[in-house]
Structure prediction request, 202 residues.
Amino acid sequence: NRISHEEAFEFDSFARDSAREVMQQHRPDLMMVHLLTLDTLSHRYGPDSRPAGWGLWVCDVMLGQLLRTWKKTGGGAVVVVSDHGFTQVKDGLGVRLVRRAAKLTTKEKKAVKLVANGHNLYIYADPSPTGARALGRLKAHFKTDERLDQWFEAADMKRLHLGDPTKQPWLPDAIAMMKPEVLIWGTRSKRRERRPLWRGNH
Prediction:
């Protein structure tokens, strides 16, 4: 479940206070602090919104407090990074729509698991003729969809050193990577919101 911006601010306050206490009492050689307010507000309202500007200010203030404590306790190298940027979503498709468009039969639907994550769809197929047929139908469907950026199968994953689904069963059998501005949502999501939607481009 996504957290609210109030919860993100409370979490960040707790993370800041805890990190300062750890610095003062234990003087760690390595420490990581992850602040959520800016990320949460940017996902909700967009990276150029007023709420995101406030989130940036909050992060700046908290980072200043952390750096002052770090300096007082001996300091050292500090690296500040972002976990991702943002892309505005201009198009999207749901898992149910994908199953329907690929014309999967009832048995084929049961033989594959489709997992949505941003603009990627991870496809897990049963090691059965039905699973192979379903995977073939999905591939044929996506290859005609102009929103597809890349299609990865086991051989592609091995070539790119992403693992081998034939030896590592937790890996997907295929990945449909859509163009950055296309969002894939899961079966439980109700994407009927009218506000602009922003996706983290990890």
